[in-house]
């Protein structure tokens, strides 16, 4: 652990000059994508998030998450983010996630001119029609997935920053070793559960050592040889220690093998140009999706572009009383729909959390909530659908998974 890189205080991870370093990283990426004078809507999103991050001293958590992402890339592997992490534009600029949460837009790769689309009509900017830049004639690319930052930070920045990752199984030990090198061996351990090591969760301490909170044993398993594991289960430690979930998923290992065998990098695949409709109408789902996805994907009628692939995954992962209901597929879209209908940000967020956190089905939407939505002109049919939802997944999570499924589809279409 380098004293130049790391400064710790009780209970927190802090890197020296973290705020300045994070801004420098993000400003360089912003300039590369959107030029030196981005539209106000982009700058406002960026500064709003930076204020929330600074208010919670969260810059170091961003830098640590970036180090995990960078290590995966250094080893030659794609990674993914889980949960709501892709709702942060700062996380996108920092290279933590591939998911750009801005509203759907065209971006000129040459002169950086930006044209925003109607966000109510497009699930993803990847589905925007190709066009040439009206300013310089250069090629414009579609980007942005319409994901509000409140889903990651909370309505007023009250949520704990939570970065969780998907990585290839074969680099799991490398990632853990990298964290040990950054933080020091006494400050990180695999979270213990009842009788074994957690398959994904690592616990990190600040000023104190892990051993100040719990005994540590050493085990060999999916994390590698002779790794520290907390004797106390993480449920007894999460109030004192920072945690990151690092899951291993097979699609990332498969994509690396395909890259090696085809000499074609998965990141170079044009997601917007894949023939989704052709694939789903004629091809087999085997080798792309888990077998338990086959029936629900086939039940989801529309799969002709990337946005509909995202919605199909949302349909699979949602829990509803009416399993044929396909119009509401992720929690973020509920939040945006309620806001567009005139509800305050606070009410829209509260009702979205009621649906997204599996509480609506237990108590039902209150009469006050239903009346509030009716007064805003929201249809009774939509309100009834919300009342029947037990869980809706985060859109950022779905987009991250859909990106790698889309890449797998491309390789299969090309007969690789």
Structural features, described:
The protein is α+β, with helices and mostly antiparallel strands. It contains 16 helices and 15 strands. It has helices at residues 18-34, 40-55, 59-74, 89-93, 150-153, 172-183, 250-262, 276-282, 294-299, 306-317, 331-340, 345-356, 360-363, 367-375, 380-387, 395-413; strands at residues 7-9, 12-14, 80-82, 105-108, 114-116, 131-132, 139-143, 164-167, 188-192, 197-204, 216-221, 224-233, 242-248, 319-320, 389-391. Strands 3-8-13-10-9-12-11 form a 7-stranded mixed beta sheet. Strand 4 (105-108) and strand 5 (114-116) form a beta hairpin. The longest helix is centred in the C-terminal third of the chain and has 19 residues, at 395-413. It starts with 6 loop residues before the first strand and ends with a helix.
């Amino acid at each position: 652990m380098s004293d130049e890189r790391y400064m710790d205080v009780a209970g927190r991870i802090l890197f020296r000059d973290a705020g300045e370093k994070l801004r420098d990283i993000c400003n360089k990426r912003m300039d590369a994508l959107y030029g030196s004078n981005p539209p106000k809507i982009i700058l406002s999103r960026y500064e709003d998030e930076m204020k929330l991050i600074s208010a919670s001293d969260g810059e170091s958590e961003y830098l640590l998450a970036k180090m995990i992402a960078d290590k995966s890339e250094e080893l030659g592997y794609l990674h993914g983010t889980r949960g709501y992490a892709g709702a942060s534009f700062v996380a996108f600029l920092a290279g933590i996630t591939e998911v750009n949460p801005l509203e759907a837009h065209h971006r000129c790769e040459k002169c950086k001119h930006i044209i925003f689309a109607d966000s109510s009509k497009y699930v993803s900017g990847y589905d925007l029609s190709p066009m040439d830049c009206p300013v310089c004639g250069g090629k414009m690319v579609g980007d942005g997935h319409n994901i509000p930052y409140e889903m990651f930070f909370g309505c007023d920045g009250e949520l704990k920053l939570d970065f969780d990752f998907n990585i290839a199984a074969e680099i799991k030990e490398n990632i853990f070793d990298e964290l040990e090198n950054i933080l020091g061996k006494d400050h990180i351990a695999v979270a213990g559960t009842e009788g074994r090591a957690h398959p994904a969760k690592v616990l990190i301490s600040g000023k104190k050592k892990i051993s100040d909170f719990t005994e540590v044993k050493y085990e060999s398993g999916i994390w590698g040889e002779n790794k520290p594991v907390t004797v106390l289960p993480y449920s007894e430690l999460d109030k004192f220690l920072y945690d990151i979930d690092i899951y291993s998923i097979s699609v990332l290992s498969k994509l690396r093998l395909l890259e090696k065998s085809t000499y074609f990098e998965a990141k170079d695949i044009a997601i917007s140009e894949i023939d989704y409709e052709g694939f789903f109408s004629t091809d087999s789902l085997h080798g792309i999706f888990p077998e338990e996805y086959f029936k629900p994907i086939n039940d989801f009628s529309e799969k002709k572009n990337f946005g509909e692939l995202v919605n199909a995954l949302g349909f699979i992962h949602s829990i509803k009383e009416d399993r044929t209901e396909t119009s509401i597929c992720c929690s973020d879209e509920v939040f945006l729909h309620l806001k567009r209908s005139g509800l305050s940000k606070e009410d829209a967020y509260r009702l979205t959390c009621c649906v997204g956190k599996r509480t609506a089905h237990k108590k039902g939407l209150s009469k006050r909530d239903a009346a509030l939505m009716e007064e805003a002109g929201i249809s009774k049919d939509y309100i009834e659908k919300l009342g029947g939802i037990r869980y809706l997944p985060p859109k950022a999570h779905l987009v991250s998974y859909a990106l790698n499924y889309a890449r797998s589809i491309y390789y299969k279409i090309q007969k690789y």
